[in-house]
């Protein structure tokens, strides 16, 4: 219904499924039927995706967005013809760029897993409204995107600080936190989408969730050592 609904994951999925090119058609900018102006969201997503494609070695011309009205059939036919020709010139996805198919598949999988993180980190720019096409190239820079991937943030619960209040587990959107009463909580790094909610949610008096960048996440505390012995209970037991 709206080009703004075309998520970054849809484009990456198309490439993961072997599509050689992706075309997104949206209504003309500033002619959106809704107050949301989702075509600006689509434009920003495409500009970001093109940089990501460059980062993994794909030619960004394999992705194109154009804005036109439903009355512009001739323009649509021209644009599609031109795009089809371009994609043919570029050749099969990956082969045209000299990237090994297995390597490309694993890169696309890795990037797809990071989409929620990418969106959180680029939130403000993704919401911007560029009026001048000359600004398009500057919205996301190559250096910025390279840095984004070289400094990916991970979240880790410090077992020494966690008080098992369960707040983080209740707020995690993907149930990535292994949680039980009176048990040190542990983040399942495979499931974590790096949204940072647990970091924000952990009460400051505990401050148990750490942000880690540029170094490996410590291994999870073994299950048999996760039980928290409350000092007050120990005291009560001793007094009895
Ligand atoms: S960052 Fe925290 S809240 Fe977000 S998915 Fe990972 S574990 Fe869950
Ligand atoms: S919110 Fe903090 S203290 Fe509470 S369970 Fe999560 S990591 Fe532990």
In short:
The protein is mainly alpha-helical and 240 residues long. The protein is built from 11 helices and 6 strands. The chain is elongated and about 75 Å long.
Give your account of this protein's structure:
The protein has 240 residues and is mainly alpha-helical. The chain is 42% helix and 10% strand. It contains eleven helices and six strands. The protein has a two-stranded parallel sheet. Helix 2 links the parallel strand 1 (22-26) and strand 2 (63-67). Helix 1 runs antiparallel to helix 4. The longest helix is centred in the N-terminal third of the chain and has 18 residues, at 38-55. The chain is elongated, with a radius of gyration of 23 Å. 25% of the residues are buried. The model is unreliable at 234-240 (pLDDT under 50). It binds iron/sulfur cluster (2 copies). Residues 155, 172, 174, 176-177, 187, 192-198 line the site of one iron/sulfur cluster (SF4).
């Amino acid at each position: 219904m709206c080009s703004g609904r075309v998520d970054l994951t849809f484009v990456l999925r198309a490439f993961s499924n072997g599509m050689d090119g992706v075309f997104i058609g949206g209504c003309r900018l500033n002619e959106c039927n809704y107050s949301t102006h989702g075509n600006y969201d689509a434009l920003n997503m495409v500009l970001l995706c093109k940089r990501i494609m460059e980062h993994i070695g794909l030619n960004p011309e394999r992705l194109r967005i154009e804005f036109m009205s439903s009355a512009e059939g001739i323009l649509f036919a021209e644009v599609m013809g031109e795009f089809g020709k371009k994609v043919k010139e570029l050749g099969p996805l990956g082969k045209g760029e000299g990237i090994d198919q297995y390597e490309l598949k694993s890169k696309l999988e890795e990037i797809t897993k990071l989409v929620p993180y990418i969106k959180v980190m680029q939130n403000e720019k993704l919401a911007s409204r560029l009026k001048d096409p000359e600004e398009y190239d500057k919205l996301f820079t190559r250096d910025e995107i390279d840095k984004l991937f070289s400094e990916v943030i991970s979240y880790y619960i410090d077992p020494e600080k966690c008080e098992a209040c369960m707040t983080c587990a209740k707020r995690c959107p993907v149930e990535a936190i292994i949680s039980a009463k009176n048990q040190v909580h542990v983040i399942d790094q495979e499931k974590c989408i790096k949204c940072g909610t647990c970091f924000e949610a952990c009460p400051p008096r505990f401050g148990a969730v750490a942000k880690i960048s540029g170094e490996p996440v410590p291994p999870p505390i073994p299950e048999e050592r996760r039980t928290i012995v409350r000092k007050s209970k120990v005291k009560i037991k001793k007094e009895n």
